[in-house]
Specification:
Number of helices: 29
Number of strands: 21
Strand content: 15-25%
Shape: elongated
Helix content: 55-70%
Mean pLDDT: 79
Distance between the termini: 37 Å
Length: 867
């Protein structure tokens, strides 16, 4: 017989022989479907978002080139921009700052984000409004276009007057969409667009005011953004104040890189789901093999070789794996449409959802391979089944133990590990990250596996004869040969671990927010208070019967020199050292790298005082002595590390053109989350009192109504002064955290669903043992009710132990995240996560009883014939 005919014959046998097991084998392979769906959805989502970024890159930036600075442009930079406009380059400006908005009709105020834009802004993209077309009329007068939320918070309506500083604007329309703006940005402060021609009338940009200045440029056809950047980047970047230049290509690259990182993060969820699916496939195929022992023995008696037997069943597994992967790909396309909706508040683009053939093909290929490689491990056992199995009866466990002594099993195990690494590499992009991902996943699964083994041993060790019969039998099922403890603990424990960790991190973050607000001595803060306004604002607060908690002077400054060496010298030396290291193939780290450029270049807003605040703790050195008039400073610990300075070093400051040398006498650890002014640098009294400054004034006001009244009276008298209701900030941050959590919870719920087919496969893997056990119990006189109670006890214990394992691991995982990522304390949320565990226990019981219902229906004789 030719090889082709032999192959066709084997395929025909595989097809005919699969008729009695297709549905069951497909159930096992469905474990892989959700993993494939996750990969397809996440890769398609990433592809769609990246493509949308490329298509909308100019609209996201608003121009071909963006120039931005924290201070007003110097005369030199302004002259350069004027010459560019004369040469045919399109120029438009936007100035962004925070201020208080007041609607006189309602008398309500709100902190807002003001964006003063010039004509032609933006060059690309469309800002849509309600009613439509209002953006074109913005520059025609004193108009404002606002976020819809502002109308609600200020009890305003279209046509009302809005006061910003000393200027009045008519609310023309509300914003519907702004290219590039994240949905959560309005939660920080509602946006207000006004014409920049009237910016001066507001009187808001005074000494010390914080604002961002951006200029968008539109290149003529003869000049590309890259060529422009090459010619003018140095001229702008070396200007004082320094101007940052970004081209549309750079902006696209940065956004795409961020989206790829998001895709990598989400891809880990898909990878874990796929590996859990692989475990489900292995459990299910193990059950399939157990059912096929007698069939394989008959085939061997009829002359089939061990290789032919293996080919028949591998072909069946491959076909069912393909069907499962196809179902997963279809489901993934559906998830693909849901992901942009779940993450819409955090995406800078409007995502155009289309099919991504590469992502679908990659998901299918990975799914089929995982289904094949994980099923091959138990299928190898078929090669060692003897024809004598048709004549003598051995327990399935003995048959499998004897059959699995196969050197090929080691090769398959190695292939499984290699496959996990390769798949992780497709998720991570680099070998180092792939190994890290694979190790982290192996660690999580390993911990769950160890927990399952320990639980199984504990069940055997602590079982007592005095326990009720049904409970004893249920506990015994946890450690008997062929038990399902490991598979159930893995699938159920991982789902509970993921959900509980997420919940506990969210709860702790919100609790920390509440705690910081309670610890704060004030609940309203006024900032941008000019020096000649501080006493009057203080009087207004006290006249209203409220308590002034703190008045913090703020002086803007920059570093001029460290230990006698200028900033330019330090940066030049650092650049030269970096170039030399690159030439030697080295990478500078630690002190050899030199001070951080951001710390050397940034503008510091510092204060002076003679006492420490509750939000800071001295780490080294001594606080300022009352009788010591030497110019001294206390640095925040991380800043001192970034600047590479120690106690006794000198730092010279440029305070509005005046050089002030100081000595570092202490370092502090600052709790930045406290709702009160915190500073990187604190000067000793008598050092910078005479410098131009502004104030932040903190007050304690008993009620929300009193806070609103005080804010209104201050803004009416001093329009440049902004204020924050800290309870509103708390609600705002809670809202943002809630949006983040909702997006992650969506992924967590999907991930939890991945474990359900694995549970089905794990339970189905022991169906044969269930039937035999049920037969023996019924033969010995057990009633149907007793058999049901035994199963209930087993699955209740499995569900409870699996859920408890996930809860315990979630406490550890949440603690690690809070300590090392969020760097704050952790308090476990026991009751809520136990509720999650109880719900998952109920799910495990329901799946176990539903899958084992055949035990109730079978008569002893029928079950014995099958067994």
């Amino acid at each position: 017989m030719s090889e082709t005919k032999r192959l066709q014959r084997l395929m025909a046998i595989a097809w005919r022989e699969s008729r009695t097991a297709r549905r069951r084998l497909l159930l096992y392979m469905s474990s892989i479907s959700l993993g494939v769906s996750a990969l397809v959805a996440i890769d398609s989502f990433t592809d769609n978002v990246s493509r949308s970024v490329r298509e909308q890159s100019r609209a996201l930036l608003g121009g071909d080139v963006s120039l931005s600075a924290r201070d007003r442009y110097s005369a030199k930079a302004t002259t350069l921009l004027d010459s560019l406009a004369t040469a045919g380059v399109g120029v438009t400006h936007v100035t962004t700052f925070a201020s208080m908005g007041l609607v006189p009709r309602s008398g309500l105020t709100r902190l807002v984000q003001v964006r003063a834009v010039s004509a032609r802004y933006p060059f690309y993209g469309e800002i849509t409004t309600e009613p439509a077309g209002a953006w074109a009329r913005l520059q025609s007068g004193r108009h404002a276009i606002v976020d819809p939320s502002l109308l609600v918070s200020l009890d305003a309506q279209l046509g009302d007057t809005l006061m910003l500083g000393t200027a009045r604007f008519v609310i023309l329309a509300t914003l519907r969409s702004v290219p590039g703006d994240l949905g959560v940005s309005a939660a920080i402060g509602p946006r207000i667009y006004i014409p920049d021609a009237y910016l001066g009338e507001t009187g808001l940009l005074v000494f010390g005011s914080r604002a961002e200045y951006e200029t968008l440029l539109k290149m003529p056809p003869s000049l590309s953004p890259a060529r422009f950047a090459g010619r003018f980047n140095v001229r702008f970047s070396t200007d004082t104040p320094r101007v940052r230049l970004r081209t549309v290509a750079e902006n696209e690259f940065n956004l795409t890189q961020s989206i790829d990182q998001l895709g990598d993060f989400l891809g880990i969820v898909g990878l874990v789901a796929l590996l859990l699916g692989g475990i489900g496939v292995a459990s299910g195929v193990h059950a399939f093999v157990m059912r096929k022992i007698d069939t394989v023995a008959v085939l061997r008696c009829l002359g089939a070789t061990s290789g032919q037997v293996l080919f028949i069943y591998v072909l069946q597994a491959l076909a069912m794996g393909l069907v499962g992967a196809l179902a997963g790909a279809v489901l993934g396309v559906g998830f693909q449409f849901a992901l942009p909706w779940a993450l819409k508040d955090f995406l800078p683009v409007d995502v155009n959802v289309t099919l991504a053939p590469m992502a679908i093909g990659l998901g299918l290929g990975i799914g089929v391979w995982v289904a094949l490689i994980f099923s091959l491990r138990p299928l190898l056992s078929l090669r060692r089944i003897s024809p004598l199995q048709t004549l003598r009866r051995e327990s399935d466990a003995d048959v499998m133990r004897r059959a699995q002594r196969d050197s090929a099993a080691m090769v398959v195990s190695f292939a499984i590990v290699a496959s996990v690494l390769v798949i992780a590499l497709t998720r991570a992009g680099t070998v180092e990250r792939a190994i890290s991902y694979a190790a982290a996943i192996a660690g999580a699964i390993g911990l769950l596996w160890i927990a399952a083994v320990l639980l199984s041993r504990a069940a055997k060790q602590f079982t007592r004869p005095a326990w009720p019969f049904v409970l004893r039998q249920g506990v015994a099922n946890l450690y008997r040969p062929g038990n399902q403890t490991r598979a159930v603990i893995l699938s159920l424990g991982f789902g509970v671990f993921l959900m509980s960790t997420l919940y506990q991190v969210q709860r702790n973050l919100l609790n920390q927010l509440d705690l910081k607000l309670e610890q704060s001595r004030a609940n309203v803060v006024f900032f941008d208070v000019q020096e000649d306004q501080a006493q009057a604002v203080d009087s207004l607060i006290r006249a209203a019967g409220h308590r002034v908690v703190q008045e913090a002077p703020i002086v803007p400054m920059r570093i001029a020199a460290i230990n006698g060496r200028s900033v330019s010298q330090i940066m030049a030396d650092a650049d030269n050292a970096a170039k030399a290291a690159r030439a030697r193939g080295e990478r500078l780290t630690g002190a050899r790298r030199g001070p951080s450029s951001w710390a050397l270049r940034r503008e510091f807003r510092s204060t002076f005082r003679g006492e420490q605040m509750p939000s800071e703790k001295l780490v080294s050195g001594k606080w300022f002595a009352a009788n010591d008039r030497t110019p001294q400073i206390s640095l925040e610990r991380e800043l001192a590390s970034e600047l590479h300075v120690a106690l006794g070093d000198t730092i010279t400051w440029n305070v509005q053109g005046v050089r002030i040398p100081t000595v570092v006498t202490s370092t502090r650890e600052v709790t930045w989350a406290r709702f009160e002014p915190n500073f990187f640098v604190v000067f000793s009294p008598g050092t910078i009192e005479k410098a131009p400054k502004q104030y932040a004034i903190l007050a304690h006001v008993p009620t929300s109504a009193a806070i609103a009244a005080l804010q209104r009276s201050v803004v009416l008298r001093y329009p440049n002064v902004s204020s924050l209701d800290l309870s509103l900030i708390q609600r705002t941050i809670s809202n943002v955290i809630g949006k983040v959590t909702s997006a992650i919870r969506f992924m967590a719920i999907v991930s939890l669903a991945f474990g359900i087919p694995v549970l089905f496969s794990a339970v189905a893997a022991t169906r044969r043992e269930r039937l035999r056990e049920g037969v023996l119990l019924k033969t010995l006189g057990a009633t149907r009710r007793q058999v049901g109670r035994i199963m209930l006890a087993e699955y209740a214990l499995l569900g409870a132990l699996g859920s408890l394992t996930g809860v315990v691991l979630s406490v550890g995982g949440a603690w690690l995240l809070m300590k090392f990522v969020f760097e704050t304390s952790f308090t476990p949320a026991i009751a809520p996560v136990l509720l999650v565990g109880a719900a998952m226990t109920a799910l495990a019981i329901a799946i176990g009883l539903a899958t084992g219902r055949e035990v109730f229906r079978q008569t002893p004789m029928a079950a014995l014939r099958e067994a």
